[in-house]
């Protein structure tokens, strides 16, 4: 059974940093791209970033480019999202998801809440 | 950036009725469009990918159609558990984008 478990969310001040983790199990982690999608309170879904199975290729939404870094440790079956320079508008639930084929998201974690506020 | 516009914003129907949800893209995305279902407090669930392929474990009452810029999700006969928010998503071009969602509520 595929399981994805996010951790690392919390309250952070504007300009601060936070690192999210997503522990994966139930599939061959290194064989699949992984992604982060976020959802601001009461709002819709926003794609944030995707990383290839090897970690050699990454893509970012313009809204986070230069501030967020996606990475993975295939030896630990773990996906990361390093978030720097956080802004109030980054407040959201962050979901990690396994990528089906090129770019659909077939399994999702339960989400980690990130709140950026002073 | 490709903009996806979903309609209607809210759809009020009764169990047993047929639901038709629309997603219109600002540019051709065919066939790279997916549909997701999200219930309150839960993660989204992939229903349909590549416009018309049901994801693993998705009931046959869910179907997707369309091409080019116009796509439709149809639920043939609504079950109580189908009332939720539905999102479309395109993977034709970076950045991947989602529609704003259609809320399917019980009438």
Describe the structure concisely:
Chain A is an all-beta fold.
Give the SSE layout.
The complex is a heterodimer of chains A (118) and B (107).
Chain A: E1 3-7, E2 10-12, E3 18-25, E4 34-39, E5 45-51, E6 58-60, E7 68-73, E8 78-83, E9 92-100, E10 104-108, E11 112-116
Parallel strand pairs in A: 2-11
Antiparallel strand pairs in A: 1-3, 3-8, 4-5, 4-9, 5-6, 7-8, 9-10, 9-11
Chain B: E1 4-7, E2 10-13, E3 19-25, E4 33-38, E5 45-49, E6 53-54, E7 62-67, E8 70-75, E9 85-90, E10 97-98, E11 102-106
Parallel strand pairs in B: 2-11
Antiparallel strand pairs in B: 1-3, 3-8, 4-5, 4-9, 5-6, 7-8, 9-10, 9-11
Description of the molecule:
- Chain A is 0% helix and 53% strand.
- Chain A has 118 residues and is mainly beta.
- In chain A, strands 2, 4, 5, 6, 9, 10 and 11 form a 7-stranded mixed beta sheet that branches. Chain A has a 4-stranded antiparallel beta sheet with strand order 1-3-8-7, with no helix packed on it.
- In chain A, strand 4 (34-39) and strand 5 (45-51) form a beta hairpin.
- The radius of gyration of chain A is 13 Å and the shape is globular.
- Chain A starts with a strand and ends with a strand.
- Chain B is built from no helices and 11 strands.
- With 107 residues, chain B is an all-beta fold.
- In chain B, strands 2, 4, 5, 6, 9, 10 and 11 form a 7-stranded mixed beta sheet that branches. A 4-stranded antiparallel beta sheet of chain B has the order 1-3-8-7, with no helix packed on it.
- The mean pLDDT of chain B is 96.
- The chains are: A mainly beta (118), B mainly beta (107).
Task: Give the largest interface.
Answer: A-B, 22 and 22 residues
Terminal residue distance of chain B: 35 Å
Please summarize the sheet with the most strands of chain B.
7 strands, mixed
Shape of chain A: globular
Structural class of chain B: mainly beta
What is the total tally of β strands of chain A? 11
Q: Helix segment count of chain B?
A: 0
Strand content of chain A: over 45%
The largest pleated sheet of chain A is described as: 7 strands, mixed
Overall form of chain B: globular
The H/E string of chain B reads: EEEEEEEEEEE
């Amino acid at each position: 059974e595929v399981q994805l478990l996010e951790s690392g969310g919390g309250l952070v001040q504007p300009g601060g940093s936070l690192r999210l983790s997503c522990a994966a199990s139930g599939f061959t982690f290194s064989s699949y791209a992984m992604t982060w999608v976020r959802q601001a309170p009461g709002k819709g879904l926003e794609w944030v970033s995707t990383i290839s199975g090897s970690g050699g290729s990454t893509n970012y939404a313009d809204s986070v480019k230069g501030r967020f870094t996606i990475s993975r440790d295939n030896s630990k079956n773990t996906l990361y999202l390093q978030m720097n320079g956080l802004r109030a508008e980054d407040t959201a639930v962050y979901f990690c998801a396994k990528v089906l084929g090129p770019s659909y998201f077939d399994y999702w974690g339960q989400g980690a809440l990130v709140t950026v506020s002073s | 950036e490709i903009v996806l516009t979903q309609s209607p914003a809210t759809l009020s129907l009764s169990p047993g009725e047929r639901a038709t949800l629309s997603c219109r893209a600002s540019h051709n995305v065919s066939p790279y469009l997916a549909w997701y279902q999200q219930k309150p407090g839960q993660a989204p669930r992939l229903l349909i990918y590549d416009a018309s392929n049901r994801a693993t474990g998705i009931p046959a009452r869910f179907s997707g159609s369309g091409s080019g810029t116009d796509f439709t999700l149809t639920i043939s006969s609504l079950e109580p558990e189908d009332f939720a928010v539905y999102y479309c998503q395109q993977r034709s071009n970076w950045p991947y984008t989602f529609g704003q969602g259609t809320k399917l509520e019980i009438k």
